[in-house]
Design a protein that fits this description.
Blueprint: H1 3-26, H2 29-57, H3 68-104, E1 108-112, E2 118-121, H4 123-129, H5 133-136, H6 141-144, H7 148-156, E3 163-166, E4 174-182, E5 186-193, H8 195-231, H9 237-268, E6 276-279, H10 280-297, E7 304-310, E8 314-317, H11 319-336, E9 342-350, E10 353-360, H12 382-387, H13 394-404, E11 408-413, E12 419-425, E13 430-431
The structure holds adenosine-5'-diphosphate (ADP).
The site of adenosine-5'-diphosphate has 19 residues, from α11 and α13.
């Protein structure tokens, strides 16, 4: 009723008043003080024992007989206990809600320890991977999903992009795995059924490949006839220009079909399982020779293309693909820069990774275009791209080739200050 301090002061006051009164009456001050203090101590020990027994019997026992200070202390303990119980109930409720929400997701979630053992999973994960409550807790992820590609992906430690693999339990189903690292305590594996999406993607690229293929034959025939007309002077003066234009457009269509077929092949076929090994220097030399031909074709004879630094390294990869990627970049540098531009191709190490850079002092590209440059058919200046024989697919092809090698394309450019295209080749593709 008086609180801890109030009760303590009252009790101390009573003790002092008792000592003063009885000391005055009897004249034995020390004896009186000793008797009363001992009495207070005995009562205190007795109450303490009472409280100790009460604490032992907790919870569910009310403590009503203890007066004063002790009552106040027990009431405080009871209040704290009921607060903790309320907090615990709300946390339980929150957890139950969270479990329910996670179960209603269409993605499977699996919490894994640092050594890839399964701690916890939601219902969709059981459905997608066939996890069983009584068997699979603490099992290694790789015992359940016996796909070497998943093991390799997980061990690389690079989880920026998800990996799509066939389902380990249902044939024909495709699953996408995404790993999220949880601050040194483990990992969260997100599994999604992407069968429908993969099928649509496949249909889309098959459609593009088929259309391109079907267009190729009639176009070859048309080009052949146009060539015959031009070569044999089969049209009058007025018709020469028209046939010449038709031939130019047919040629453009041929390039477009060729690039579409390359892109669809890159999308639909698996990367070469047995890559070749070759010198970076040879790759750069090849791209420079090719760019020299582009120089002649687009009449930019004053343009200079040189090999700058080149660390002597061997790359493990697909020569045809990587040379085509680099050729695309050097050809772009020639086509989009002025006659007399300076173009440098180099290879350097960045940490363990290798970086092939194509740098020009051409017109540059303004910042708003940079994130979209690798999209199919995205061009900064449509008319200039067409004039110089561009299809709008070059950088999309480059990005895809690098992706198949585990690498990335970085673009840095400023209007008026030239452009830098960097092909990052991951360390596991370099022979040290
Ligand atoms: P395209 O076949 O049109 O060249 P790309 O995909 O190769 O298609 O390039 C996309 C666009 O990026 C080009 O249309 C051009 O506007 C721009 N571009 C590419 N390389 C350069 C460069 N070195 N300098 C300036 N602009 C460039």
């Amino acid at each position: 009723m008086y609180g801890y301090f109030g009760t303590t002061i009252i009790q101390a006051g009573l003790l002092v008043a008792g000592i003063l009164t009885f000391g005055q009456l009897t004249g034995f001050w020390i004896e009186t003080a000793l008797v009363l203090i001992s009495g207070a101590l005995v009562i205190s020990v007795w109450r303490r024992n009472q409280m100790y027994r009460w604490l032992e019997k907790r919870p569910g026992q009310e403590m009503t007989q203890v007066p004063g200070l002790w009552l106040d202390m027990t009431q405080r303990i009871q209040k704290r206990e009921s607060e903790i119980a309320a907090e615990r109930d709300s946390v339980h409720q929150l957890l139950a809600n969270l479990h329910q929400s996670l179960a209603s997701l269409d993605a499977g979630l699996i919490h894994l320890s640092l050594d890839w053992r399964i701690n916890w999973w939601n219902q969709p994960a059981s459905r997608l991977l066939g996890l069983r409550e009584s068997f699979d807790k603490d099992a290694s992820l790789f015992n359940l999903v016996r796909t070497p590609e998943l093991y390799t992906y997980v061990k690389t430690g690079k989880y920026d992009l998800p990996i799509t693999l066939p389902s380990p339990i249902t044939s024909g189903k495709m699953l996408e795995y995404t790993v999220c690292s949880i601050d040194k305590t483990g990992f969260l594996l997100v599994v999604r059924d992407v069968t429908r999406f993969t099928r649509l993607e496949r249909m889309r690229s098959d459609f593009i490949a088929n259309v391109s293929h079907e267009l190729k034959t009639p176009l070859t025939v048309i080009t052949g006839y146009l060539e015959t007309i031009i070569d044999n002077d089969l049209v009058s003066d007025a018709g020469v220009r028209a046939v010449g234009q038709a031939f130019k457009q047919a040629d453009r269509m041929n390039s477009l079909i060729k690039d579409l077929l390359i892109l669809s092949q890159l999308e639909t076929t698996a990367p070469d399982a047995t890559p070749q090994e070759f010198q970076v220097q040879d790759l750069i030399q090849y791209a420079i020779q090719d760019a020299d031909e582009v120089k002649r074709a687009v009449q930019k004879q004053q343009t200079q293309i040189v090999m700058a630094d080149c660390a002597p390294k061997t790359i493990r990869g697909d020569w045809n693909e990587l040379s085509s990627a680099l050729t695309n970049l050097t050809a772009n540098a020639v086509r989009y820069s002025h006659d007399g531009a300076q173009i440098a191709v180099s290879f350097n190490l960045r940490g363990e990774d290798g970086v092939i850079t194509v740098k020009d002092d051409g017109p540059g590209i303004s910042t708003e275009h940079l994130p979209r440059l690798t999209e199919r058919f995205y061009r900064v200046d449509n008319s200039h791209s067409r004039e110089t024989g561009g299809t709008g697919l070059g950088l999309a092809i480059v990005k895809h080739i690098l992706y198949r090698h585990g690498g990335t394309l970085e673009i840095q450019s400023k209007v008026g200050q030239g452009s830098e295209f960097r092909c990052v080749i991951p360390a596991d593709r370099l022979i040290h």
